[in-house]
Amino acid sequence: MAGLYHLARLNDRWFRLDEALVSAFVERWRPETHTFHMPFGECTVTLQDVAYHLGLPVDGRYVSGCLSEFHIYIQGGRPAWVWFQELLGVTPPPSQLFADKSGNRVHIRWLPYVARLEEMGTYSWGSAALAWLYRCMCRVANRHVVKLAGPIQLLQSWIFWCFPLFRPAGYETFSWPLASRWSGYNPSSSEKGPRVQMWRLRIDRLQDREFIWMPYSILDVLQVVHPEALEPRHMALWRFVTSLIYFSVIEWHQIDRVLPQFGGVQPRPNPALNIDFLMSKDGRGGDRWFPYHLQKWHLYWDDRAETVLRFDVVADPGPSHEFLEWWSQHRKRFLSPDMHLGDPRAVSIPVEASQRGAGRVPDMDRPEDVPDRRRVERRARVGTRRSQRDWRWLEHAMDNDDDAGPAGGG
Fold first, then answer.
1. N or C: which end of the chain has fewer CB within 10 A?
2. Residue 1: what pLDDT?
3. Which residue windows does the record flag with biased composition (Basic residues) (predicted)?
C-alpha cells in the first residue's frame, strides 16, 4: 500500500558498507557545491540515481511538518499517544516516546505518514533521501565528525555503478531496485587506514573516460524526468530542487554543475549558491510548523516544473575544454602525496574535450534572500567594516607622514 516493499527487500541479504571506499569519496565531497570534486571534474548522486538505485519516487509532495507537536496542526489536536494507541494497539512509556538515535526505533514525527499508508506513495521520498544523504555527507566533511549516517546503500551502489574500476567482481545479476544488485557484497576486513590510502590513490588516477556519465539508457532518463517538459532536441531538467527530510533539512540539487550526467557538455560553472544559513538548521531549539515557517522554500518545490534547465544532449557527454582548463587552475585535483602519483599533472587536456566545445546553459536566476557566496568571498578578501576601521589609524598615519614632506629643516 505504501509502495515501499521493494525498498524493504534491499535488506533480504545483509548490505555491508565498504567503509574505506566511502571514506575516500567523502574526502572529495564539497558542501558548498554538493558534488564530489574529482581529478576530471565534478559528479554527484542525483535524483535520477535515487529513482533507479532505491526505486523511490522523485516527484510528488514535499516531506515536511514539524518535529513533535504535530498534533496541534493535524487531526483535530489529538495527542500523539492517542494516535499511537489507535494505530499500533499499545501506548509506549513516556521515556521512550521521542527516542530516535537507535537502530530499532523510529521517531514519532513519522506517525502522521504511518496513519495514512495509502498516501505514502504520493510523497517525494526520493528527494527526501537525497537531501538527507547530502546533509550527512556535509556533516561528516567536518573533521570532528567520525560517523556517516544516511542512505549509505544509495551512495555505495552509485559508486559501483558509475565507476566500473571499483565494482566488486561476481555481481552481474540485474534486479530492482538497482542497489539490490550488490546484496551480499562483503568488503575486505583488513585495516581501514591503508585501504583508504589505496582508494584515495586510485581516485587520484581516474580519468573522465573511466566514469560512466550516463549509466542508464536515454529512454529510461526520459521516463524519470517530466515527459511534458521535454522537447525533441533538448532535455529539460529541474534547475533547482529543494528537498526536505526530517522536516527541516533543505538542500540544493545543483544539476547545472553535472550536466554530463544527463548527456550535456559541462561549461565553466556559475558560483555555487551559499545556503550556510540553512545548513545550520537541524530541528533543535524549537518546534515550528515548517509549511508556514519555511513557506518560501516549499513554494520553490511546488514551482519546480516551471524552472527547468535546457541544454543540448550530445553523443559524447563530458567536460568541455573551457571547463577542464578552469578546473585544473582552481581546484585541488589530487589528494595523494606527489611521490605516489606518478605525476599525472603532466597529462594534457584530452582532444575530445576540445571537440565537445562549450556547453550552452542559460544564466540562472537566484532565488530571493539567498546569500550570494561572492559577497562572502569578498568579505574574506577585503575585510568587514569593523576590520577596515581597525586599520584606518594606520592609513591616516601614513597619509599624515606623506603630507609632512621629507624630514629636515631649513
1. C
2. 80
3. 376-386
